[in-house]
Specification:
The chain starts with 12 loop residues before the first strand and ends with a strand. Helix 11 crosses helix 15, helix 20 runs antiparallel to helix 21 and helix 21 runs antiparallel to helix 22. Helices cover 30% and strands 27% of the residues. By secondary structure, the protein is of the alpha+beta class.
């Protein structure tokens, strides 16, 4: 046999098989030639050679050198693995193994083989149809393998089978002889095994290895030469997606779209699926494509794309699986095994083993039709795509052209299949309770279309969906989340800004009886053309939102992800032989080349720099330079944390020797990395202790207040703790303070029945014309007599109206803001007096009266609560009041329906929160506040209690953002809440754009917009997190500070000098950063007990700090630091703001402002007293005004207050009161608006108009 020289390094394993026992050949050949047998028998296969990384083994301990791994030498021993297995069996039976010297001893492994690789069973998969001698030369064939361990980790392989002639086929005089006329051929195989699914690249390597000698470079390379081919290894698009190195359009060539949907359905509901084909290669390629089609859902069961004939009994497994076998086993498999989904790849059919048809639930109609429409627009034929182009004469140019086309097509297909998954599971997050990790499956099922419910009933009980839920509950920012967020309609975003209970809007009711095409956009968001869902703006007309991720294709909208440029790094040729010094020289050459690439890369291309550091870190690792590897991985924090190899770094840290540990302690950046990695590792282990997902269940025992709060939150009825406390009081009126299970069950059932009834409300067209698109009917009375005829009273979140009977008609009773008075009266009816409700409005002289009979008390409470909520919402410019009032009114309805007793109305009064509040505090706000306040938004929406607004930041929009850019060009408002949560609002409509961006787990102290493309966030955990304003992802970190980051400031750009930013930390460190390279330009220390903030003014950096001069007394000082001088001036203050030649300062416990001359800051030349102010927490400059936030008194109560001070006259112009807690943050929106954020008791953001 001609030995093929196969070399590779790192994670590739090269296995070569000699598939013939030569001693058994002659007998079989003679019988075949004599016609005694028609076919040659199948022969056994064994492993001939194994080449496993690092392809060199230890030579001697004495060869170790400092900072390097021990020396290695090449081992090339050919020994039968089957023989070794028999020897082991003999030893196990008590036989003695002899060494080569004839003495006794233990058997040792000659070749290094990974422990999890079964070399005895592997030949069966390399020759799944069996090994057979052929009478003629056959073409080389390739197929693909996937190995899955017990933990679900997969290893991938490519196998080539090629035939070579057998020279010795007969006997003559007791010796083997050769005959050309009767030449036979035997199969050989080479199997390349990789951790990554580089199917095409590995196949190309095997093509060259069969044609001639194989000499390839490292798997770490992006491009390597395998003469005459140039082979590239594709990179992953993101850390959650696997690398794609196969043709994803192959399934679309084999199956029609509806059949593909059937196959995907069988995977989603975890059926036993068997792929069948006459071509072994198709089995793995189709199976791997299907795994990518259901991404980010992950198949949780056995995955064996190729079964040899000896492995067919695997199909008897009782669990779900995806397996594949040869097509000639079709009848056998179908007859012997029930409940199988049989996928015939060659014929393009899907059938079942138990019936002629296939009994699978249909994919939800809207998602299925969208998928089919997308697939029909695919161009999957390469020749049609390039028929207008000339053909290159250079093989690598043609390959590159084809690869580029395939890459674009793969991306398009992945977007289509991802859109399918998003459309199927888009509304899952609406039924999740993140605090208690509960999924309300019953509620989710109830909200599905009746025709779609069979599909969801099966999917919800699968392991694959359970894993998907775990990722949603951890708010994982993966491809699913990014597409779901980017395809939300503006109407949906606006609706998500309220906490009102779910009811169908007028627009949804209007669609209910329209064509299916019109109904699709209800669930698909922005993925289909009818996006004209107009939602009322909260402040004013909506600015046109960005559709840069939505492209028009033949009249249809298509979501596309931006194409990222592909960069290649060519590795040097690897010279033979594989001796130790050659390997080390190769590593060193690679490190040198990567160092040059890092030096030559553009400073702003952080993504490319990250890949270079990543590659060099791996090379340093295998070269034994652990500290250099850690330094490279440390640089990933500044370039791209998404590719940080946490497991490898943990292993490196654990493997450090004492000498290396001592050297690491002398290098602060590595020492900090080691401590951080260990801390993060422990935190990650603790986080995985309890990540289960619970399904909502009704309580089975009596509940005290704490348990009651948890069950109500899990049910999805309401999350706000204050509201739940009032509900608890209502349900426990007149009895022990606990709720029994039966009461809760009746209350919950009544609530859900009311929701279901709202789904069936049929309004006449005349009513739909008068109502706004986002209005919902929340309450509908029985048929009653009114002063305008007989009909039903309907209540929406904005108005009351009458649906007249007889001739269906619409008559508006009143909008809640127009109500002047509501009272209970009685109307004469024969000899009786019927209880009635009288509603007087400002728009009509006559009073509207309705005979509600026994419902009058409930309607009276509900209308008064809605009226009070509307008034407070209008006066305080806060729509949340109206949403809360609506929730209170519906809870009253459910309480009365639940209790069904005389005390029910009294119990419902416990929920009349705003009606009672208007009697306790005045509804009107001061005139100056009312005129200046524009709107309020709630960043704690969806949380169980209000969160303090710690920091606010406004970033302006970006005009002319290209269509292939990520994100959009709208301005954004960034709001930092507790524990590292950052909520992002679209400042064009004040709708919530990003529910939550997590930056660590500690409090955020400061934020800074840098270069309009980044937001820097300083945290208490000493890290500066960097978020891209386009992708909304945090993949960079600055870790040079050693204590909490307290201040950030950017120097104004003059276009001449490099852009720089300043940061300070509590222990007094000030760092000057180069914005483009994220490198430290300068660092110095300020002597203090705590450094609070920094600000640059006229070339002077002012630092605000604490000093402890006396026991238990804190003094605040400002330190003036010039760039080239050590002069310091101290004054007692905390907050400061530079204004031309003035410095404005304030104290947290004093209600005054101090104004200083910058040229002579010995004492303030002006002190401004702030009326009724107890302390200042923040101040900003807006135009010629200073806006000051703090706390003070209003109407005898402690409130958050804002003072607007004229910067020239030094007088207080306005005193604004709109927060019930201290104002903690202020920011300006292009000097047109000022935004203020309050502490935890209030937790809201107010938007103020600047005059």
């Amino acid at each position: 046999m001609t030995k093929v020289n196969v070399r590779n390094i790192l994670i590739h394993i090269i296995c070569m098989y000699s598939m013939l026992h030569i001693e058994n050949v002659s007998t079989s050949c003679q019988s075949h030639q004599q016609g005694k047998i028609k076919e040659l028998p199948l022969l056994g296969a064994e492993v001939l050679q194994v080449h496993a990384p690092p392809f060199v083994t230890k030579e001697s301990v004495s060869s170790e050198t400092h900072g390097h791994t021990p020396a290695f030498s090449r081992v090339q021993r050919r020994r039968s693995f089957i023989k070794k297995k028999k020897e082991r069996a003999g030893i196990a039976n008590g036989e003695t193994a002899k060494g080569s010297d004839g003495g006794g001893g233990t058997t040792t492994e000659d070749i290094s083989v990974p422990k999890d690789l079964d070399l005895i069973a592997l030949p069966q998969l390399c020759f799944p149809g069996g090994l057979q001698i052929a009478s003629e030369q056959r073409e080389d064939s390739y197929h693909y393998l996937v190995f899955t361990d017990v933990f679900g980790n997969r290893t991938h392989a490519v196998v080539v089978q090629y035939y070579r002639p057998i020279q010795d086929v007969g006997h003559q005089n007791g010796h083997l002889s050769s005959s050309k006329s009767s030449r036979l051929y035997t199969a050989y195989g080479i199997c390349v095994i990789s951790k990554y699914p580089y199917y095409n690249a590995l196949r190309d390597c095997l093509i060259i290895s069969v044609v001639g000698g194989l000499c390839c470079s490292s798997v770490l390379s992006q491009v390597f030469n395998l003469r005459p081919l140039q082979i590239g290894l594709p990179s992953r698009e993101d850390k959650d997606r696997p690398a794609v190195d196969l043709d994803l359009h192959l399934p679309f060539l084999c199956f029609r779209p509806r059949q593909l949907l059937q196959i995907i359905t069988s995977l989603l509901i975890e059926q036993r699926v068997v792929l069948l084909s006459c071509d072994w290669a198709r089995l793995t390629l189709l199976a791997e494509s299907l795994m990518l089609f259901i991404h980010p859902l992950v198949w949780q069961h056995p995955f064996v794309p190729i079964l040899s004939r000896q492995m067919l009994d695997f199909l008897m497994a009782p669990t779900a699986y995806l397996m594949g076998c040869h097509l000639h086993h079709y009848e056998e498999v179908a007859a012997e095994t029930d409940d199988l989904i049989l996928v015939n790849i060659d014929d393009g059919t899907v059938s079942s083993s138990w019936s002629d048809g296939i009994d699978l639930p249909d994919v939800p109609l809207a998602a299925a039709e969208c998928f089919i429409t997308r697939v029909e627009g695919l161009q999957v034929h390469y020749d049609l795509e390039v028929c207008h182009l000339g053909d290159s004469t250079e093989v690598n140019a043609r390959r590159a052209q084809r690869k580029q086309w395939q890459s674009k097509l793969n991306t398009h297909i992945q977007n289509i299949t991802l859109e399918l998954i998003v459309n199927i599971f888009r509304e899952v997050h609406d039924h999740l309770n993140y605090e208690h990790r509960v999924f309300n499956s019953e509620e989710f099922l109830r909200s599905r279309e009746p025709a779609d419910q069979p599909f969801y009933k099966k999917v919800l009980d699968t392991h694959i969906f359970h894993s998907f839920l775990r990722d949603r509950l951890t708010r994982k920012m993966d491809a699913f989340t990014r597409m779901e967020l980017s395809t939300r309609t503006e109407a949906y975003r606006l609706r998500s800004m309220t906490e009102s209970p779910r009811r169908p809007t007028m627009q949804e009711l209007a669609r209910k009886y329209t064509s299916p095409e019109s109904r699709l956009s209800k669930r698909l968001g922005a993925s289909l053309p009818n996006l004209g869902e107009s939602g009322g703006s909260l402040v004013g007309p909506l600015r046109q939102t960005s559709f840069k991720n939505i492209q028009v294709d033949s009249g249809r909208f298509r979501w596309t992800s931006p194409q990222r440029p592909v960069r290649f790094f060519k590795l040097p040729e690897f010279p033979p032989p594989l001796a130790y010094h050659y390997v080390q020289n190769y590593y060193q050459e690679m490190i040198t080349l990567l160092g040059k690439a890092i030096s030559g890369a553009a400073s702003g291309d952080s993504s490319l720099l990250a890949r270079y550091h990543y590659l060099r870190g791996f090379v340093n690792t295998v070269a034994g330079k652990r500290l250099d590897a850690l330094e490279d991985f440390q640089n990933l924090y500044k370039t791209d944390t998404d590719i940080f190899p946490g497991e490898l770094v943990n292993a490196l840290v654990d493997s450090l020797q004492e000498g290396e540990q001592a050297l690491a302690d002398r290098r602060p950046e590595i020492k900090h990395l080691i401590s951080r990695v260990k801390r993060d590792h422990e935190r990650e282990r603790a986080r995985h202790v309890d990540e289960g997902v619970k399904r909502f269940q009704l309580p089975k025992k009596h509940m005290q207040l704490e348990d009651f709060v948890r069950h109500v939150q899990e049910s999805g009825i309401v999350k706000d703790q204050g509201t739940i406390h009032r509900l608890f009081e209502a349900l426990t009126v007149g009895k022990e303070k606990q709720v029994d299970p039966e009461t809760f069950r009746v209350f919950y059932t009544f609530w859900k029945e009311t929701e279901a009834e709202a789904q069936e409300v049929a309004l006449p067209a005349s009513a739909l014309e008068h109502l706004e698109a986002n209005e919902c009917v929340f309450k509908l009375s029985s048929s009653v007599k009114t002063s305008h005829g007989v009909g039903k009273i309907a209540m929406t979140q904005r108005r009351l109206f009458l649906l007249t009977e007889g001739r269906p008609g619409y008559m508006e009773v009143t909008k809640f803001r127009d109500i002047e008075d509501v009272k209970i009266s009685s109307a004469p009816f024969l000899l009786l007096r019927i209880p009635s409700l009288k509603i007087k409005t400002t728009l009509r002289k006559e009073t509207f009266e309705v005979n509600l009979k026994s419902e009058v008390d409930l309607w009276h409470l509900m209308v008064k609560e809605m009226w009070a909520g509307r008034k407070m919402a209008d006066n305080h410019k806060d729509p949340q009041y109206m949403q809360q009032a609506l929730t209170n009114a519906l809870l009253m309805d459910a309480v009365v329906g639940c209790l069904q007793s005389q005390k029910a109305i009294f119990a419902a009064t416990k929920l009349a929160h705003f009606d009672r509040m208007k009697l306790e505090v005045p509804l009107m706000v001061p005139k100056s506040t009312s005129e200046t306040l524009k709107h309020k938004i709630n960043p704690s929406l969806g949380l169980t209690s209000p969160q303090a607004v710690d920091v606010l930041l406004y970033t302006p929009g970006q005009l002319g953002v290209s269509s292939d850019s990520e994100g959009d060009g709208n301005p954004k408002l960034w709001c930092a809440l507790s524990d590292g949560k950052v909520v992002v609002f679209d400042a064009a409509s004040w709708s919530m754009q990003q529910n939550q961006v997590q930056v660590g787990t500690s409090r955020v102290n400061c934020m800074l917009g840098v270069d309009r493309q980044q937001v820097w966030i300083g945290s208490q955990d000493s890290v500066i997190y960097i978020i891209s304003t386009r992708s909304m992802s945090c993949n960079k970190q600055l870790t040079d500070h050693r204590s909490e980051v307290t201040g950030l400031h950017q120097k104004e750009d003059n276009g001449l000098n490099p852009k720089v930013a300043y940061s300070c930390s509590a222990e007094g460190a000030v760092i000057v950063w180069d914005v483009s390279t994220l490198q430290v330009r300068k660092q110095f220390q300020v002597s203090c007990d705590r450094l609070q903030s920094v600000q640059l003014c006229n070339g002077t950096l002012w630092c605000c700090k604490y000093t402890y001069k006396h026991k238990n007394r804190v003094h605040l000082v400002l330190e003036k630091i010039k760039c080239h001088s050590k002069m310091c001036i101290f004054v007692t203050t905390q907050c400061h703001r530079c204004l031309k030649e003035q410095l404005w300062t304030a104290c947290i416990d004093v209600g005054e402002l101090c104004v200083w001359h910058l040229r002579e800051p010995t004492k303030p030349f002006q002190r401004i007293q702030l009326p009724d102010c107890a302390g200042v927490t923040c101040l900003i400059k807006v135009k010629n005004q200073i806006w000051v936030g703090g706390r003070g008194w209003s109407s005898g109560k402690s409130r958050g207050k804002i003072y607007v001070v004229d910067a020239q006259r030094h007088t207080v112009e306005k005193e604004l009161v709109a927060h019930t807690d201290c104002v903690q943050a202020l920011c300006s929106a292009e000097d047109r608006y000022v935004l203020s954020g309050a502490a935890r008791e209030d937790g809201k953001i107010a938007i103020w108009k600047v005059e």
